[in-house]
Amino acid sequence: MNEALLAFAAMLLLAFARMPIAFAMGLVGFAGFALKASAPAALAMVGAVSYETGLSYALSVVPLFVLMGNLVTRAGLSEELYEASHAFLGHRKGGLAMATIVACGGFSAICGSSVATAATMAKVAVQPMREHGYSDALATGSVAAGGTLGILIPPSVVLVIYGILTQQNIGKLFIAGILPGLVAVLCYLGAIAVTVRLDPTAGPPGPYVAWPARLRALRRVWGVLALFVLVLGGIYGGVFTPTEAAAIGAGGAFVFAIFRRGWSTAFLRDVLVESAVTTGMLFTILIGALVFANFVNLTTMPAELIAFTERFASTPMLVIVAICAIYVLLGCVLESMSMILLTVPMFYPVVQHLGFDLIWFGIIVVVVTEISLITPPVGLNVFVLRSVLPDIPTREVFRGVMPFVMSDLVRLAILIGFPGITLYLTRFVA
Amino acid sequence: MSPDAAEASRWRGAERLLGIVAALLLVALTLLTCIDVIGRYFLDRPLTGAFELTELAMGALVFSSLPLVSLHRQQVTVDLFEWLIPRAWRRVQNAIIDLSAAACVGVIAWQLWRRAVNMAAAGETTATLQIPVYPLVGYMALLAGVTVVLMLAMAWTDATGKAPR
């Protein structure tokens, strides 16, 4: 146990000294493995991990969903989504912020990344809110929080990685994310309602939009809907495996982007290279984390963790709450993907041993990761907003996300208390 | 053209080429599965060996993008405690980080190369299409090697304080 904890400390130290997390994990994992087993064994392990991770069929979902997300992001679908939800909700108190949340939810249904969702919606939604006299805190807070929906509402790159780490059905994980995603949207809308009740000047109502105009706006989001139904419906009905759905989704997004923007070689090359670079970045972290996990598995830590939690067998919820607390704390210093790759291999045997459903646990992990995306000091989405809107101070954004962090905690409690919300739809997956 | 500018444009040409290779691999990856699915459902004829072709394309894609990740400095880092480190150390710190990263990727390149040599000797091929695997693994090792060279060059520019590209 001590060796593993020592390795964790060393890894964090290197990461805090600004060594890329992937290499910090890989270096410490390699050194630990070499000490525990032997140097030749450690070298062979690194070779095997790199080869198997690189040539993994299951992981081909990752670049495909990244590509699909990038294509729809750049095709400018976000504007239509925002206009449609604006038409329906804009006249309410705080309605523009509510419209932002709903548009983020819609965008998340075709994009698997929280950062991309926040960055895209920031460009579309913040300006109208500022023009209508919304406070900067509410305007930016709703985008940062709404952006976190990207990894919960399927498709989700984080859920893919979780599914591969825990050998769970990725299709089921995606379907499990749908209802909690809706709960999340409702909780965020509640947070906005409370915020504008406490401070009505933060979000004044906009003009009312008549029904014919609303329906016109709604008709224009058919592209998003079509892609979502194609990908998720295909998985739900058992027509496609997740990999096939991802490829069809990416292909569909391709057609859509060309249809929307016309053929532009420069545009397509940009999007493709951007997606390839993101893929390379994710796989570097993946290889580093797997090398680290292989070392941890050599130590006594996994067995001792299970033995330790055995004592709480009569109150297993306590273990879940403790794990959530660890995630919130780790989320303050670590980037979300590295956090999941580091911790899930250790926690999931414990959770499984205590008799919990691993699909449900995956959704819980994603929800706590969402919280980590908007909490100080490193809330990634907050920094995304700062880079898109440099004139708004970071402190203001953090102030704005606070009501949403509260509503996230409420949502976490709901999902832990009622596992049925997460698991209900998965029963019907073909 | 000054020698520096000539060197810079050579780098940019290499970056462009790698980008195009990665982009084409991503397109191939998408098309492979799309053709397989369409073939299976509409023409009753799935693409033979789509599974292993996807695996091969993945390996090539991941390692083709590796040099680009370093070039764009896209590795995920924690910038939280940067202020703790004195400014004067920054150059040395950056150079050490680049060197350790180069060592990590260097080990990967070396091990993949060994694997490629063994595979060539054993005549290992894919199950369905009987494609020899060693050229791909060799390519992966080569691209990892390119990344190492790139990281060493970046360590050099960091240490000597020349503006990073």
* H/E element sequence of chain A: HHHHHHHHHHHHHHHHHHHHHH
Strand content of chain A: under 5%
Main beta-sheet strand count, sense and barrel state of chain A: none
Q: Roughly how much helix do the residues of chain A carry, as a percent range? A: over 70%
Average predicted confidence as pLDDT of chain A: 90
Model description:
The complex is a heterodimer of chains A (430) and B (165). With 430 residues, chain A is mostly helical. The two termini of chain A are 41 Å apart. The model of chain B has no long low-confidence stretch (mean pLDDT 87). Chain B has one domain. In chain B, α1 runs antiparallel to α2. Chain B is mainly alpha-helical and 165 residues long. The longest helix of chain B is centred in the N-terminal third of the chain and has 40 residues. The chains are: A mainly alpha (430), B mainly alpha (165). At the A-B interface, α2, α3, α4, α14 and α15 of A face α1, α2, α3 and α4 of B.
Question: What does the secondary structure layout of this molecule look like, with pairings?
Answer:
The complex is a heterodimer of chains A (430) and B (165).
Chain A: H1 2-16, H2 21-36, H3 39-54, H4 61-74, H5 77-89, H6 95-108, H7 114-131, H8 136-147, H9 157-166, H10 170-176, H11 178-198, H12 211-219, H13 222-236, H14 242-261, H15 265-298, H16 301-310, H17 316-331, H18 336-353, H19 358-374, H20 380-388, H21 394-417, H22 419-423
Chain B: H1 3-42, H2 50-71, H3 90-122, H4 134-160
Helix pairs in contact in B: 1-2, 2-4, 3-4
